[in-house]
Amino acid sequence: MAEIETFYEVMRRQGITRRSFLKFCSLTAAALGLSPARAAEIAAAMEQKPRTPVLWLHGLECTCCSESFIRAGHPLAKDVVLSMLSLDYDDTLMASAGHHAEAILEEVMTKYKGNYILAVEGNPSLNMDGMSCIVGGKPFVEQLKHVAKDCKAIIAWGACASWGCVQAARPNPTQAVPVHKVITDKPIIKVPGCPPIAEVMTGVITYMLTFDRLPELDRQGRPKMFYGQRIHDKCYRRPHFDAGQFAEAFDDDGARKGYCLYKLGCKGPTTYNACSTVRWNEGTSFPIQSGHGCIGCSEDGFWDKGSFYDRLTNIQQFGVEQNADRVGATAAGVVGAAVAAHAAVSAVTRARVKHVQTDERREDR
Amino acid sequence: MSESIEVIRAPQVVYVYEAPVRLWHWVNALAILVLGVTGYFIGSPLPSLPGEASHSFLMGYLRFAHFAAGYVLAIGFLGRIYWAIVGNHHAHQLFVLPFWNLQWWKEVIWEARWYGFLEKIPKKYVGHNPLAQLAMFTLFTLGITFMICTGFALYAEGAQQGSWADHVFGWVIPLFGQSQDVHTWHHFGMWVIVIFVILHVYAAIREDIMSRQSMVSTMVSGYRMFKDDRPD
Fold first, then answer.
1. Residues 6+ apart with CB under 8 A from A20
2. What stretch of H or E contains B179?
3. What pLDDT sits at residue A212?
4. What is the ipTM of this complex?
5. CA A185/CA B204 separation, integer angstroms
6. First to last CA, chain B
């Protein structure tokens, strides 16, 4: 077994020049919002620190996170990050397969005990003892628990690992659960999205490897640097929202003028992600820019929040699919009608009582 | 003659609602009106305004009015809680139910029977009648508390992490799942308040006419007037 290498050694061995390496360090510093001075720190860390291996497991998933990740638009990310990652195990990307591949898992787990990062794409299913997702002849949930046992931290890639995503949508036949429902004793960094933005993925993992600490997380365990604001907060169509200018249909004049897609069910106001700032495909565009509302793919249970095209969520709890306003207005209408009827009966009753009283008084005389 | 003197001597007028309670009631009513109307139009916006985006700020003003009225309501509610502690004993009726008092529950049923036209004569109450107290506690006190918590949690999303609203109410969002769920429940809460307002206004006017004491004017002057001097 080879000696423990530093990141820099790994990169040089893979033919990356020192110039490219330094460029990568300064770009990474910029991407993480650090001052230029920190680029040297990143370089120093990568030259001196032993590389931290990353084991990348795949559960129930569509592999869109990997697809996004390998398209990291950051020019050097494409060339460098894959080597820098020391991605020792990733069954969809690695050349070896079968027993050879599985042997690497055990090797890394022993050699880097307590010091490797576990990246999980997809999620475990619990139904029928996890039989809905089999990896290397065993249920994925067992592999996950086994590899998580000695890891330093877990990165939950995508909506699957973070929240459950489509396989956990109602009625969730395989009982798919997010990683934090199975692994409770390790720090978990959620990087939700379906898929997450490539640069967000590389940014998070680079931060963890170079600074040797977890990024600052919000209440729901997402890195604040990418999930601190809603799409809506940084949307370039926000001025149209504030002005009250909305597209009412995808082919109307408002849509052509680039008005806000709020009324077409855009979930930007309720979705925490970096799409409106980092954008996709090397910063080319993002859904709202191409004329479609955000579907809220980085939010918990986004498949179960009704149509992607409704502003107000339909609720199934009342037997009929109706949104809160229609249910509420109906209830208020019923109460209003009841009040009116009650008022009418009250008036009649009172008139009758008065009538009787007047009669009584007349009799008294 | 002697009878009429007794009538005058009987305590027919009681000072019930102190000035801060009355002031709060009407400010609160106005805030709820503004919140309900602006809130509805934030969820279901009006047709688009023509012209440059820089010419109008409709949603901005609607949201500003909503947030401002929300602050008025929340601060007023805190003030009302303070007054429940330092004010007269009627002032805490909104916040404390005599839950273990069997007699109180019996009178809740009695009042419900009065509303169901099963009792001919209502009872006299200086403060709220038990049924009114129950309705106000469940629909208004709990309802407004829910609206303040969910409302400021949503406000915290715009005010962003590190804001006071995020520190105090940020935990509400994960509790419901995600932001969209909180929006949905906040909409529901509005309709609960609308239903409360319908019942409250109707009951106040109906009681003013049909009960044995004053209602509407009491929230203006603070004095409860009784129409007869029979006990009970």
1. A76, A79, A80
2. helix B179-210
3. 80
4. 0.88
5. 57
6. 24
